[in-house]
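Continued from yesterday's entry.
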Amino acid sequence: MSVHSEIKKVTTETLRKMKFDKEKITMLTAYDFTTAKMVDAGGIDAVLIGDSAANVMAGFETTLPITLDQMIYHAQSVVRGTNRALVVADLPFGTYQSNPEKALESAVRMMKEGGAHAVKIEGGKEISKSIKKIINAGIPVMGHLGLTPQSIYKFGTYKVRAKDEAEAEKLIADAQLLEGLGCFAVVLEKIPADLAKKVSESITIPTIGIGAGPDCDGQVLVYHDMVGMNQGFSPKFLRRYLDLYTEITGAVAQYVKDVKNVDFPNETESY
């Protein structure tokens, strides 16, 4: 019997046990009550309130503009729609990098006001003091290595990271550091599959991949990408399970036609 079928509420310990039992972990983003409710009902293990809300909900080019207050609002909405899944929220750019005290304050606000069960932050050794401060306060932290979108202007590209030996060795070291600091899991974004496999085998905490091959302990996708609501984003790692853009625009077009032709509402749809 799988861990998934045995438990009622997913916790950080659940994810650790799933890795131990070799059961893959599933994760999707959500930014609002309705989506969270559907994703949770579908049996997802963890919901990520990603700072990707800046892109898919607000239309920004990068994740950098979204604020902590805005992320807290999204977290509140998602938590109200989630019964079973573990809810993890990103701390946005500028809320944890400068000093450990600010990082802790940001994480506390996300937990107290947002209602999240854990926070996710990007980086390794460079932000180790902030991670340690947050974890020492009793707040679960999920790490994030590889392509870290908050550092996009440093990288200058969204291409695959850690293809050269030096960067790959640093990523492995950072993953082991995150485990040592007490992180309960780590996202590996857009790195070579063989490296992701090596990282996953080198640490005892779960790895959650996005564009990192099949050997991670789990996978995460942006909900809007997975259900085909976004048309302009088609990375190699993305599998679309629906084409909602076409379905929704078609439904809207039909609604417009019906209203214009006085076909809606009809007698049965009127009081």
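--- second protein ---
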Amino acid sequence: MSAPPTATGRARISVRTLRTDRWWLPPLITFLALLAFVVYGVIRTFMNQWYWVPEYHYLAPFYSPCLSAACVPGASHWGQPAPDLGPFVPPPIFVLPFVLGFRLTCYYYRKAYYRSFWASPPACAVGEPHRRYTGETRFPLIMQNVHRYFFYAALLVAAVLTYDMAIAFRGADGGFGIGLGSLLMVVNVVLLWAYTLSCHSCRHLIGGRINHFSKHPVRYWFWTKITWLNGKHMLLAWASLVSVALVDLYVMLIASGAFPDPRLFN
């Protein structure tokens, strides 16, 4: 028999699981995918090289904006307000906390890593492995409540990456040019904007605190569009995560000389 839910805890079952399917497969896939991104991100951050292609103005997303005095010449489009603090504090360290903060506090990602990393809960109709459940009422999970503030930072980062995409259409001679890298950056920026704007905080910002939508037709129109995006938030979360890693990897390979950037024009 399962215990009835209470105001202070989760419903518990007397057996390991009531499921007969492979309930552990989705959490396992999520765990491996997120772990792969984390490992790549850590390695890429402390690699501290091959992130700028001066010939085509390609800047790797992990290093944008490059605000440290340690940044290579030409990569700092917004100045270098941060000092060079050595190899243990590479340039991405000054920006990644805001980007990761937005992802980690995202409602979808909470579900993803709560189930896959903490097994809290691992799946529906599966026994809760933890003795106590406090939700997001204690440190560090109470910090999930600052998601809306990380959303504002994510808007700035998306705007910066949009600028990086625009200057990536410069050719080798300083004029207009199109390469595979610049097209990949367009896809990445579109996915990042779609993921950011599909955020629950954005939806609340557009349509929250309104008692009568009929009196705010413009905001209601935007709210309906954001609501449609919000329904695809999980898909956009994964697509944008993959696109960031792939574009960063592509710029790294071009910058390292692994192969030339295929040019469609100039």
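The chain is about 50% helix and 5% strand. The two ends are 71 Å apart (CA to CA). Will compare against the first tomorrow.
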